[in-house]
Amino acid sequence: MRKTVFYFNLFLILFMAKSSYAQDWQNLGRYKDENKQLAPPAKDEKRVVFMGNSITEGWLKEMPDFFAGKPYIDRGISGQTTPQMLLRFRADVIALKPAVVVILGGTNDIAGNTGPSTLEMILDNIASMAELARENKIKVVLCSVVPAYDYWWKTGVEPAEKIVALNKMIKAYAEKNHFVYIDYHTPMKDEKNGLKKEYGEDGVHPNKTGYAIMGPIAEKGIAEALKKK
Question: pTM of the full predicted structure?
């Protein structure tokens, strides 16, 4: 009897969690309250929204000093793919009225977090975000995907060369459409196109040393974007 009750309760918990995920697949609820509480940009504020997945979300947690005292807003959500980012782009970027958006996404798509995805599909989602931003007078910084040789939560995907190919596509798209492109991949990769161990112990997510590499690259890209007419 106790076993039956235990498994029933477990089923109930999993069912509720799955239902909640299905109802908010894009996770608009994650930053809903924070977005409401955020004041409009000050007159001379050059607000920057960092849009992405766990690599963006982890940046604020791992290196809060990078954001402190700056008009930087972190809107990363762990595990997200580019279609999820696209669906919350209006609420988590456009509605915040930034001067610049820094878009970093694609590695979870390659991992198949929300199902199979081609590199072309990933680029389409990134392009849609960039074009939405442009239509709303927001300058765009497109980021290369951070190197990864394997995914610890989904081994055997062999992402290294797929990431290299995707980055070439993102760069070509950025150049064609006059968006700023920044390259995290080159300075952070090892000889196998994976993440150097000193920049991230799990091979996917940067540590403090990794974010210290990324910070100046991002800020250079932001400065370049702000100069664009």
Answer: 0.90
